[in-house]
Amino acid sequence: MKVTETQILESLKQIVDPDLKKDIVSLGFVKDLKIEDRSISFKINLTTPACPLKSEFKKKAEEIIKRTFPEIETVNVEITAEVKKAERPEGFLEVLPSAKNIVAVGSGKGGVGKSTVAVNLATALSVLGGKVGLLDADIYGPSVSMMLKTSHKPIVVGDKIVPLKSNGIFYVSMGFLIEEETPIIWRGPLVSRAIEQLISDVDWPELDYLIVDLPPGTGDAQLTICQRVPVTGAVIVSTPNDVALSTAKRGLVMFEKMNVPILGIIENMSYFVCPHCGKESEIFTKGMAEKEAEKIGVSCLGKIPIEGKIAESGERGIPIVNLYPSSETAKAFIKAAESLAQEISKINLKG
Length: 351
Prior knowledge:
Blueprint: H1 5-12, E1 16-17, E2 22-23, E3 30-36, E4 39-46, H2 54-68, E5 74-81, E6 99-106, H3 114-127, E7 132-136, H4 144-147, E8 156-157, E9 160-161, E10 164-166, E11 169-173, H5 188-200, E12 207-213, H6 220-228, E13 233-238, H7 242-257, E14 262-267, E15 272-273, E16 280-281, H8 288-296, E17 300-303, H9 308-316, H10 320-323, H11 328-350
Parallel strand pairs: 4-5, 6-12, 6-13, 7-11, 7-12, 13-14, 14-17
Antiparallel strand pairs: 1-2, 3-4, 8-9, 10-11, 15-16
Helix pairs in contact: 3-11, 5-6
């Protein structure tokens, strides 16, 4: 008796996405199913190329088909991804239209490594297969152009700024709009105007994710972004100590008041990795941010260690995810990017 499409789809319902809480057939992930003699082929089209379970889904699908239908000799499963665009309220439809998902990266205070996290999260999402942009909106301390060792500024075509590209990501920095080493001494209206120029005057390509590196704190730049941009969600960066966590909570409350979903907390400088013996040492109390995230009811997206290689990556202008991909820190950023992508997928599925 010939195997039918209905039978195959029914068998594949055994594969459940643990984050989305539904099987891959009900989610509409199974595409282009073909049955030819003793051969079956289909695609599993996920909501993000950064899905950490893609290899597991492929393996399970092959095993289930072979076990359920022994008469089938060949099973070809291809993993693809199509990032869903976040739903937008009416007033935001024409704002950054080419960006499917916009992620604000903030912190309650300076010195927690927020920009380093933003740069490496963007790079990690790109490494995992996403089309990624990075907007450095840190008005008072723009550092992305330094972290990516930019010696030239983007060109202007017509009335639009064309973003630069480095290490797989498109980016624009507030640092391009000011002279190097010139202090920013601006009142609120000037800050808001500069942010709006970065939002409206950049010709971004089609992006799955646009990471926005905000200044620390809860000032005019953050308010302008939240009011003018359809932010999919926010990531809070903190170190695992009381001072950083208490100020991080203020940032979290600000986003909540602006109706921006919290995608999670990233614990930076979580522990120190000795370059000689590889042993972990806890400079702060490791896991404090994770416990705080659990208490608040948001995800801890990752715990990023302190490693000498990350300082080198900043000096060389190459994110550690690309410079030392096998390092402990690079692996932590990849895991954090996978978790971030999954949180975005969950929000978009609910929408």
